Amino acid sequence: MEVNEPIAVYGKKKFTTEEFLEFEEASPERHEFFRGEIFAMSGAKLPHSIISVNLLTELRQKLKGKNCRPFNNDLRIHIPSIELFTYPDISIVCGNPETRNNDNLNLLNPSIIIEVLSPSTKNYDRGEKFDFYRQIPSFREYILVDAVTVHMEIRLRGYDRQWTSRDFKNSADVVEILSAQISIPLKDIYADTGLITV
Question: Which residues contact 33 (CB under 8 A, 6 or more apart)?
Answer without folding.
Answer: 15, 17, 20, 24, 39, 83, 84, 85, 86
